[in-house]
Amino acid sequence: MDQEVFFQKFVTFATSVHEVTYELTKDIKPNDITPVQYSILEYIAVSQPVTLSQISDCKHISMPNTSRELKKLTEKNLCEKFDVAEDRRKQLIRLSEVGQAMMNEAFHRIGGRFLDRIKDASAEELEEIQRALDVLQSKVFYGDK
Amino acid sequence: MDQEVFFQKFVTFATSVHEVTYELTKDIKPNDITPVQYSILEYIAVSQPVTLSQISDCKHISMPNTSRELKKLTEKNLCEKFDVAEDRRKQLIRLSEVGQAMMNEAFHRIGGRFLDRIKDASAEELEEIQRALDVLQSKVFYGDK
DNA sequence: CCCATTAATTATCATTTGATAACTAAATGG
DNA sequence: CCATTTAGTTATCAAATGATAATTAATGGG
């Protein structure tokens, strides 16, 4: 198949993924935190404990801005900072109990929407979907560094 | 397989897709337009001609804000508005020649990065990738309305 | 023909986000 | 030890984005 067509297919696919993740996650975020703050919390939830630098790198937010947003999140008691014994410049960040509960709730609702989305798939189809996820993850959407 | 694990796999996958599209498109946008403006241009490029309402719906930007951004893009000569004979409230929007050239260039560069990303895949693997894209597109990342 | 709806515009305001400079403190490596 | 690098903070500013209200004009259904 033509490279042009292949690329076209990829673009359509990526657009669909973005749209579906938008649908799955819309109206999930509590009103008292901003979109960027919510995305930081999602990242912490999945990768905790993390350092400020990791958040900055992974979310593509500058250190000063990451520091600022994290300070707000800490003031809202959604996450906590812990000193690292080996390197006292660093801080490890975790969700607080409240923050964890909030994100559990959020993921639970998103998970429900996701299951609803695939509810019509048979067991064989689910197998097929999983293999497809593995293929694309390893051959197209891999991270290189 | 467990639903929890399945969902977990989905989350990881969606995250990878977002990260890879970020990598493919970073530093592509010209400096004289904002991120939102660029994303609007991408949408117009792929779907033209489109109405203002379509842009508003698909990009999840309110009508007033869509109108404002589109006005700026028109002033920069990147797109053009045409009246619709059948319904004089509507306007169809297309890229201007300059805008089209800009987006062609952008897509060309992104396409190059994409091809580089899959350059090590064999012909059979490319077939496999394509089938995987089709499977996921139809069974997971479909749009419903 | 009137009323409700749709499409788009303009103006305005608040908030969020991004960018930069200047700083402290700790580690690391010759 | 001293210089450099790393980790994070604070302050400040500008720009981008989001939200709302009020308006115009055209359409479409009873």
UniProtKB/TrEMBL annotation, chains A, B:
<keyword id="KW-0238">DNA-binding</keyword>
<dbReference type="InterPro" id="IPR036390">
    <property type="entry name" value="WH_DNA-bd_sf"/>
</dbReference>
<dbReference type="GO" id="GO:0003677">
    <property type="term" value="F:DNA binding"/>
</dbReference>
<dbReference type="GO" id="GO:0003700">
    <property type="term" value="F:DNA-binding transcription factor activity"/>
</dbReference>
<feature type="domain" description="HTH marR-type">
    <location>
        <begin position="1"/>
        <end position="138"/>
    </location>
</feature>
<protein>
    <submittedName>
        <fullName>MarR family transcriptional regulator</fullName>
    </submittedName>
</protein>
<dbReference type="InterPro" id="IPR036388">
    <property type="entry name" value="WH-like_DNA-bd_sf"/>
</dbReference>
<dbReference type="Pfam" id="PF01047">
    <property type="entry name" value="MarR"/>
</dbReference>
<dbReference type="InterPro" id="IPR000835">
    <property type="entry name" value="HTH_MarR-typ"/>
</dbReference>
<dbReference type="InterPro" id="IPR039422">
    <property type="entry name" value="MarR/SlyA-like"/>
</dbReference>
<dbReference type="GO" id="GO:0006950">
    <property type="term" value="P:response to stress"/>
</dbReference>
